[in-house]
Amino acid sequence: MSIPNGSSGNLDVKLELDSGAETTRKIGGAPVNCYAFARARKSNIPGGTRGPVGLPYMVKPDSTHEALLKDGGIPLGLNPFSMSGREPIELDPDETYYLVAAMTAREEYHFARLFSDGWWAKPSKVKLAHQMGDTVDVPDTKTEFKGKLCKLGGRTKYNPLGYYLFPAPK
Asked: Measured between alpha carbons, how far is residue 46 from residues 13, 32, 42, 66, 136 in Å?
């Protein structure tokens, strides 16, 4: 898999299929931010421009969570390996899902997605995607999440919101 240069407004993700063939998926038309990159979608704002976090002052953990649910996110909490404290999840066996880590700060959110070679994020619409770590590690406590993913996001002021599964685009 090659991670794209999304700075020009198009997000091209090159994938090698099990058969050995290669395919490219294009997302584009406008520069993408961390949310659009993590979801492989065009939408840059969770829940849409008129949604729960449509303006910076609206970004809080609860409103960001609400926006992610509105976009079809399946919340896994801070430990995706534990069912403690959450309802059972029923996934469609014919769907592919992305694991997305969500973080918030004062009037700001940040998202990263787990790829086969580690966590990747895009810090802004004009910067390139970058690998946040070369291990496929899923921190399963708030402390580990903050120390590994929030810190690797380039800023230590982010606070962990949790993990979400999103259906991959077809």
From this structure: 21, 13, 11, 9, 25
- Amino acid 12 reads D
Residues 6 or more apart whose CB falls under 8 angstroms from that of 128 comprise 5, 6, 7, 122
Least confident of 41-55, 84-98, 149-163: 149-163
CA distance to 20, 104, 138, per residue, from 99 (Å): 24, 17, 10
Name beta bridge partners: 101.
112, 163
Q: Domains of the chain: which residue ranges?
A: 32-167
At 131, list the tokens. Answer: 């690998």
Give start and end residues of each alpha helix (H) in the chain. Answer: 34-39, 61-70, 142-145, 151-152
- pLDDT tens across 3-38, in order? 444 444 445 555 555 666 666 555 444 567 889 889
